[in-house]
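Dear colleague,

Thank you for sharing your sequence with our group. We've completed the structure prediction you requested, and as agreed, I am returning the results in plain text so they can be pasted directly into your records. Please verify that the sequence below matches your submission; if there's any discrepancy, let me know and we will rerun it promptly.
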Amino acid sequence: MQFMASKQPENCLLGSESDSQRTLYPYVTGTSVVALKYKDGILMAADMGGSYGSTLRYKNVERMKPVGKHSLLGASGEISDFQEILRYLDDLILYDNMWDDGNSLGPKEVHNYLTRVMYNRRNKFNPLWNSLVLGGVKKGEKYLGTVSMIGVNFEDNHVATGFGNHLHGQFFVKSGMRT
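Please find the predicted structure tokens below.
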């Protein structure tokens, strides 16, 4: 009987120890993402600028992407790391669709997955330099959550990343919106 070693996919979270390509210092970054729940769904907003240091280098960078059928992901931080996260999510959605069972991942499941990814990378001293906002609606239930680059996460009625995180709380308190 012959045994064959299983080959890990290239985008595997556990990657080999010899992987040396990682972000040490963010170069091209995006700023704030702001999101809130409202009566009919989720509202999420971000600019499309990619900054190189303090210079607006790229003016058409998409930092919000749909994930599956029910979710939308927004990111601030390093753009190349966001592209890596999107590759992980593409693999996850493809794997979920292969089951062909009529069920699909909702925003809560995707948020849980992203939390594990970010925490795993932090523990390997190879973090992805992003703060993520994930929102969506599945079966009429609205969901809005955020994950930091070290895996800290929470769910709320309104969230923001970057500098917007420092401003949005006061805005909602002064406008009378409750958390």
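Summary note from our side: The two ends are 61 Å apart (CA to CA).

Kind regards,
the structure core
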